[in-house]
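re the bet — no i am not wrong, look at it urself. input seq straight from the record:
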Amino acid sequence: MQMEMAVAEEEQKKKKKKKREREEMMTVSEHQFRRSSSSSSHGSDRLSVSICEVMQKDYGLYVWPCSIVLAEYVWQNWERFHGAFVLELGAGTALPGIVAAKVGALVILTDSDDQPQIQGLTWGQWDATSFTVRRPSQIILGADVLYESRDFDDLFATVKFLLQDMEDSVFITTYQRRSGHRSMEYLMAKWGLQCTRLIDALKILPTSKRSLVNGASIELVEIKLRK
Protein backbone atom coordinates (compact mmCIF):
# COMPACT_ATOMS: atom_id res chain seq x y z
CA MET A 1 0.00 0.00 0.00
CA GLN A 2 2.79 2.42 0.92
CA MET A 3 4.63 1.54 -2.27
CA GLU A 4 1.52 2.29 -4.37
CA MET A 5 1.08 5.63 -2.60
CA ALA A 6 4.74 6.47 -3.24
CA VAL A 7 4.40 5.65 -6.95
CA ALA A 8 1.23 7.76 -7.20
CA GLU A 9 2.96 10.65 -5.45
CA GLU A 10 5.93 10.42 -7.81
CA GLU A 11 3.58 10.50 -10.82
CA GLN A 12 1.90 13.61 -9.47
CA LYS A 13 5.27 15.29 -9.06
CA LYS A 14 6.18 14.47 -12.65
CA LYS A 15 2.87 15.86 -13.93
CA LYS A 16 3.31 19.08 -11.95
CA LYS A 17 6.89 19.46 -13.22
CA LYS A 18 5.77 18.92 -16.81
CA LYS A 19 2.97 21.44 -16.40
CA ARG A 20 5.35 23.99 -14.90
CA GLU A 21 7.86 23.52 -17.73
CA ARG A 22 5.07 23.87 -20.26
CA GLU A 23 3.87 27.12 -18.70
CA GLU A 24 7.43 28.47 -18.68
CA MET A 25 7.70 27.75 -22.42
CA MET A 26 4.35 29.38 -23.20
CA THR A 27 4.10 32.61 -25.16
CA VAL A 28 1.41 34.58 -26.97
CA SER A 29 1.81 35.73 -30.56
CA GLU A 30 -0.27 38.49 -32.15
CA HIS A 31 -1.45 38.21 -35.75
CA GLN A 32 -2.81 41.23 -37.60
CA PHE A 33 -4.92 41.15 -40.75
CA ARG A 34 -5.91 44.15 -42.84
CA ARG A 35 -7.59 44.82 -46.16
CA SER A 36 -8.57 47.98 -47.98
CA SER A 37 -12.00 49.40 -47.15
CA SER A 38 -13.01 49.22 -50.79
CA SER A 39 -12.52 45.44 -50.86
CA SER A 40 -14.68 44.78 -47.80
CA SER A 41 -18.45 44.93 -47.75
CA HIS A 42 -18.81 42.62 -44.76
CA GLY A 43 -17.57 43.11 -41.23
CA SER A 44 -14.38 44.93 -40.26
CA ASP A 45 -11.43 45.54 -42.56
CA ARG A 46 -9.10 44.67 -39.66
CA LEU A 47 -8.66 41.62 -37.46
CA SER A 48 -6.34 40.82 -34.56
CA VAL A 49 -5.88 37.23 -33.36
CA SER A 50 -3.89 36.21 -30.28
CA ILE A 51 -2.47 32.69 -30.33
CA CYS A 52 -1.05 30.88 -27.31
CA GLU A 53 2.05 28.91 -28.33
CA VAL A 54 4.27 26.43 -26.55
CA MET A 55 7.91 26.76 -27.59
CA GLN A 56 9.00 23.16 -27.19
CA LYS A 57 9.13 19.87 -29.08
CA ASP A 58 5.32 19.74 -29.45
CA TYR A 59 5.59 21.44 -32.83
CA GLY A 60 1.82 21.31 -33.30
CA LEU A 61 1.50 24.09 -30.71
CA TYR A 62 3.55 26.59 -32.67
CA VAL A 63 2.40 28.96 -35.43
CA TRP A 64 4.49 27.87 -38.41
CA PRO A 65 4.90 30.04 -41.54
CA CYS A 66 2.48 27.82 -43.48
CA SER A 67 -0.27 28.70 -41.01
CA ILE A 68 0.39 32.40 -41.48
CA VAL A 69 0.14 32.03 -45.27
CA LEU A 70 -3.06 29.98 -45.15
CA ALA A 71 -4.69 32.34 -42.63
CA GLU A 72 -3.82 35.31 -44.85
CA TYR A 73 -5.35 33.55 -47.85
CA VAL A 74 -8.58 32.95 -45.91
CA TRP A 75 -8.65 36.59 -44.82
CA GLN A 76 -8.11 37.97 -48.32
CA ASN A 77 -10.71 35.61 -49.79
CA TRP A 78 -13.32 36.14 -47.07
CA GLU A 79 -16.21 36.12 -49.55
CA ARG A 80 -15.39 32.52 -50.45
CA PHE A 81 -15.35 31.49 -46.79
CA HIS A 82 -18.25 33.53 -45.43
CA GLY A 83 -21.11 31.11 -44.71
CA ALA A 84 -19.07 28.10 -45.91
CA PHE A 85 -18.53 24.84 -44.04
CA VAL A 86 -14.84 24.63 -43.15
CA LEU A 87 -12.93 21.71 -41.66
CA GLU A 88 -9.33 22.19 -40.53
CA LEU A 89 -7.08 19.14 -40.39
CA GLY A 90 -4.19 18.96 -37.92
CA ALA A 91 -5.37 22.28 -36.53
CA GLY A 92 -2.77 22.70 -33.77
CA THR A 93 -2.92 26.40 -32.86
CA ALA A 94 -5.68 26.72 -35.50
CA LEU A 95 -4.86 30.19 -36.87
CA PRO A 96 -6.43 29.53 -40.31
CA GLY A 97 -9.56 28.02 -38.76
CA ILE A 98 -9.93 30.90 -36.32
CA VAL A 99 -9.66 33.44 -39.15
CA ALA A 100 -12.21 31.46 -41.16
CA ALA A 101 -14.63 31.61 -38.23
CA LYS A 102 -14.01 35.34 -37.86
CA VAL A 103 -15.04 35.97 -41.49
CA GLY A 104 -18.25 34.00 -41.03
CA ALA A 105 -17.44 30.37 -41.83
CA LEU A 106 -18.93 27.44 -39.91
CA VAL A 107 -15.73 25.83 -38.66
CA ILE A 108 -14.82 22.45 -37.20
CA LEU A 109 -11.25 22.14 -35.89
CA THR A 110 -9.77 18.65 -35.87
CA ASP A 111 -6.53 17.12 -34.68
CA SER A 112 -5.33 13.82 -33.29
CA ASP A 113 -7.43 12.29 -30.52
CA ASP A 114 -4.96 13.35 -27.82
CA GLN A 115 -5.52 17.08 -28.41
CA PRO A 116 -8.00 18.56 -25.91
CA GLN A 117 -10.82 20.94 -26.93
CA ILE A 118 -10.54 19.97 -30.59
CA GLN A 119 -12.57 17.29 -32.32
CA GLY A 120 -10.54 14.12 -32.67
CA LEU A 121 -9.83 12.99 -36.22
CA THR A 122 -6.83 10.70 -36.58
CA TRP A 123 -5.67 10.46 -40.19
CA GLY A 124 -6.25 7.09 -41.80
CA GLN A 125 -8.73 5.93 -39.15
CA TRP A 126 -12.52 6.07 -39.59
CA ASP A 127 -15.25 5.88 -37.00
CA ALA A 128 -18.80 7.21 -36.66
CA THR A 129 -17.47 10.70 -35.94
CA SER A 130 -15.47 10.72 -39.17
CA PHE A 131 -18.64 10.51 -41.25
CA THR A 132 -20.29 13.41 -39.43
CA VAL A 133 -17.67 15.89 -40.68
CA ARG A 134 -18.15 15.05 -44.38
CA ARG A 135 -20.22 17.67 -46.20
CA PRO A 136 -20.84 18.74 -49.81
CA SER A 137 -19.26 22.05 -50.84
CA GLN A 138 -16.95 21.92 -47.83
CA ILE A 139 -13.57 23.65 -47.68
CA ILE A 140 -10.94 21.51 -45.95
CA LEU A 141 -7.90 23.39 -44.67
CA GLY A 142 -4.49 22.04 -43.72
CA ALA A 143 -1.41 24.14 -42.88
CA ASP A 144 1.96 22.36 -43.06
CA VAL A 145 0.30 18.98 -42.65
CA LEU A 146 2.93 17.50 -44.99
CA TYR A 147 5.61 17.38 -42.31
CA GLU A 148 6.21 13.82 -41.12
CA SER A 149 6.80 11.42 -44.02
CA ARG A 150 5.22 8.54 -42.13
CA ASP A 151 1.90 10.46 -42.04
CA PHE A 152 1.65 11.32 -45.75
CA ASP A 153 -0.41 8.34 -46.90
CA ASP A 154 -2.76 8.54 -43.91
CA LEU A 155 -3.27 12.24 -44.60
CA PHE A 156 -4.10 11.78 -48.27
CA ALA A 157 -6.31 8.78 -47.52
CA THR A 158 -8.23 11.03 -45.13
CA VAL A 159 -8.47 13.83 -47.70
CA LYS A 160 -9.85 11.41 -50.29
CA PHE A 161 -12.33 10.05 -47.74
CA LEU A 162 -13.56 13.57 -46.98
CA LEU A 163 -13.86 14.54 -50.66
CA GLN A 164 -15.37 11.27 -51.95
CA ASP A 165 -18.95 11.81 -53.19
CA MET A 166 -18.96 15.29 -51.63
CA GLU A 167 -19.77 17.55 -54.56
CA ASP A 168 -17.70 20.74 -54.87
CA SER A 169 -15.62 20.03 -51.76
CA VAL A 170 -11.97 21.07 -51.91
CA PHE A 171 -8.78 20.63 -49.87
CA ILE A 172 -6.64 23.77 -49.54
CA THR A 173 -3.21 23.28 -48.03
CA THR A 174 -0.04 25.28 -47.62
CA TYR A 175 3.16 23.31 -47.54
CA GLN A 176 6.85 23.97 -47.47
CA ARG A 177 9.11 22.26 -49.97
CA ARG A 178 11.74 20.70 -47.74
CA SER A 179 13.12 17.80 -49.80
CA GLY A 180 12.46 15.82 -52.96
CA HIS A 181 10.76 12.87 -51.27
CA ARG A 182 7.83 15.07 -50.22
CA SER A 183 6.33 14.96 -53.69
CA MET A 184 2.79 16.35 -53.85
CA GLU A 185 2.46 15.16 -57.43
CA TYR A 186 3.19 11.56 -56.49
CA LEU A 187 0.78 11.57 -53.55
CA MET A 188 -2.04 13.14 -55.54
CA ALA A 189 -1.64 10.62 -58.34
CA LYS A 190 -1.53 7.72 -55.88
CA TRP A 191 -4.78 8.76 -54.16
CA GLY A 192 -6.75 9.83 -57.23
CA LEU A 193 -6.50 13.55 -56.57
CA GLN A 194 -5.55 16.52 -58.71
CA CYS A 195 -4.22 20.03 -58.23
CA THR A 196 -6.66 22.68 -59.44
CA ARG A 197 -4.74 25.73 -58.25
CA LEU A 198 -1.17 26.53 -57.20
CA ILE A 199 -0.09 29.85 -55.68
CA ASP A 200 3.30 30.95 -54.37
CA ALA A 201 3.16 32.30 -50.81
CA LEU A 202 4.77 35.60 -51.83
CA LYS A 203 1.74 36.33 -54.00
CA ILE A 204 -0.52 35.91 -50.97
CA LEU A 205 1.38 37.68 -48.21
CA PRO A 206 1.44 41.46 -48.02
CA THR A 207 4.92 42.99 -48.08
CA SER A 208 4.79 43.59 -44.32
CA LYS A 209 4.47 39.85 -43.63
CA ARG A 210 6.96 38.38 -46.06
CA SER A 211 9.74 38.34 -43.49
CA LEU A 212 7.63 36.00 -41.33
CA VAL A 213 8.24 33.06 -43.68
CA ASN A 214 12.03 33.43 -43.28
CA GLY A 215 12.71 32.76 -46.95
CA ALA A 216 10.95 29.39 -46.89
CA SER A 217 9.61 28.05 -50.18
CA ILE A 218 5.89 27.78 -49.43
CA GLU A 219 3.05 27.10 -51.83
CA LEU A 220 -0.72 27.02 -51.50
CA VAL A 221 -2.37 24.13 -53.32
CA GLU A 222 -6.04 23.47 -53.99
CA ILE A 223 -6.83 19.79 -54.44
CA LYS A 224 -9.94 17.99 -55.65
CA LEU A 225 -10.82 14.45 -56.65
CA ARG A 226 -9.55 13.54 -60.08
CA LYS A 227 -12.40 13.33 -62.57
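see?? The mean pLDDT is 84. told u. also The radius of gyration is 19 Å. so pay up
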